[in-house]
Design brief:
The chain has 3 helices and 3 strands, in the order H-H-E-E-H-E. Strand 2, helix 3 and strand 3 form a beta-alpha-beta unit. It is an alpha+beta fold and 105 residues long. The protein has a 3-stranded mixed β-sheet. The protein is 55% helix and 18% strand. The longest helix has 31 residues. It has a single domain, classed as GMP Synthetase, Chain A, domain 3. Helix 1 crosses helix 3.
Length: 105
């Protein structure tokens, strides 16, 4: 705790500090979410992909925003298949569950 901090040649802007801190918390999930978003049509299929979008990954759960409640029910029937396809695409057991929510697609 008594370590001395390295002196900076110039003051840091708070935005730079916050970006560094936030990046350290979600480094892996942000990259994984980007990959899932790019591959969503392949994993979910054309029809489902047009009615939804991946929103976040938290604790191995993928949050997917869906256009309306009717689609949520359809997605529930296909959840296991989509999880399997996503994990195959990612090459690891990244997603254990999908939570569907109504939201902007």
């Amino acid at each position: 705790m008594n370590q001395k901090r390295e002196k900076l040649s110039r003051p840091l802007h708070i935005e730079d500090i916050l970006q560094q801190v936030m990046a350290s918390f979600r480094k892996d999930s942000a990259g994984d979410l980007l990959t899932i978003s790019k591959q969503w049509k392949q994993a979910a299929g054309d029809v489902f992909a047009n009615e939804s979008r991946p929103g976040a990954i938290k604790d191995k759960k993928l949050i997917v925003y869906v256009s309306n409640s009717g689609w949520i029910q359809e997605f529930q029937f296909n959840k296991a298949i989509i999880i399997e396809k996503l994990n195959d695409i990612m090459g690891k057991q990244l997603i254990s569950d999908i939570i569907f929510k109504i939201g902007n697609v």
